[in-house]
């Protein structure tokens, strides 16, 4: 599956318009003051924001809700920053990524503080219509995925998230991280090789 996904990504790089190009088109329309341009720009970046934030926060019980709250905060922050945004030679999507990465870091810092603070009372579990067995399996898989990603360096983890989960091209990922497409491909190859090794060591592949 990993190899097939990489093929799709390479086809995107040389085929249809990239996410960056779509966002830049909407940004240009916003700057020209076209009607509904702000909403269209937000619609262009929202899928990227949601996929990135969900992948960084996780899929455990209640985590998707938390991730979507953070994604909404990112979108609001992007809208608030638009009037003062200045083109400094980097794509607008890199600007959005910077905001998203900071919001995710803020989320984990706040969560760490909450774990250190005693609760006055035990919070009631969130009601769910999901089958308990299916929910348990999803949580177990989420924990395993998170543990696997923690085996990578911070930059390798970002490359895997942006390339494989979010679906950016190597060029777009390089622009997010201030790197080069070639370096991104090398990091992706090494990261996926390491993840495959971890899976084999755990008897999962």
Summarize the structure.
The protein is mainly alpha-helical. The protein is built from nine helices and no strands. It holds the Pfam family Sigma70_r4_2.
Structural commentary:
With about 200 residues, the protein is mostly helical. It folds into two domains: about 15-115, Orthogonal Bundle (Rna Polymerase Sigma Factor, Chain: A); about 130-205, Winged helix-like DNA-binding domain superfamily/Winged helix DNA-binding domain (Arc Repressor Mutant, subunit A). About 75% of the residues lie in helices and about 0% in strands. The chain has nine helices and no strands. It has helices spanning about 1-15, 20-30, 35-55, 65-80, 90-115, 130-150, 155-165, 170-175, 180-200. Helix 2 (about 20-30) packs antiparallel against helix 3 (about 35-55). The longest helix has 25 residues, at about 90-115. The protein is globular, with a radius of gyration of 19 Å. The two termini are about 10 Å apart. This is RNA polymerase ECF family sigma subunit. It comes from Actinophytocola oryzae. Keywords: DNA-binding, Sigma factor, Transcription, Transcription regulation. It holds the Pfam family Sigma70_r2.
- Summed up, the domain count is 2
Structural class: mainly alpha
CATH superfamily name of the largest domain? Answer: RNA polymerase sigma factor, region 2, helix turn helix motif
Q: What percent of residues adopt helix (DSSP H or I)? A: over 70%
- Beta-strand fraction estimate: under 5%
CATH architecture type of the largest domain: Orthogonal Bundle
Largest sheet: none
Shape descriptor reads globular
CATH class of the largest domain: Mainly Alpha
Per CATH, what is the topology of the largest domain? Answer: Rna Polymerase Sigma Factor, Chain: A
Strands, count: 0
């Amino acid at each position: 599956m990993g190899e097939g996904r990489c093929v799709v990504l390479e086809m995107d790089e040389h085929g249809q318009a990239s996410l960056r190009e779509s966002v830049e088109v909407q940004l240009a329309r916003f700057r020209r003051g076209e009607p509904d341009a702000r909403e269209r720009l937000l619609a262009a970046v929202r899928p990227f924001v949601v996929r990135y934030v969900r992948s960084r926060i996780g899929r455990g019980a209640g985590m998707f809700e938390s991730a979507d709250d953070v994604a909404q905060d990112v979108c609001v922050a992007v809208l608030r920053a638009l009037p003062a945004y200045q083109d400094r030679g980097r794509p607008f999507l890199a600007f959005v990524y910077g905001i998203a990465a900071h919001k995710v870091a803020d989320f984990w810092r706040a969560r760490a503080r909450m774990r250190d603070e005693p609760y006055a009372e035990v919070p009631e579990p969130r009601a769910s219509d999901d089958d308990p067995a299916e929910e348990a399996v999803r949580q177990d898989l989420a924990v395993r995925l998170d543990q696997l990603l923690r085996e990578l360096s911070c930059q390798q983890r970002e490359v895997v998230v942006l390339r494989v989960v979010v679906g950016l091209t190597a060029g777009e990922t390089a622009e997010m991280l201030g790197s080069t497409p070639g370096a991104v491909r090398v990091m992706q190859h090494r990261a996926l090789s390491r993840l495959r090794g971890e899976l084999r060591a755990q008897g999962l592949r």
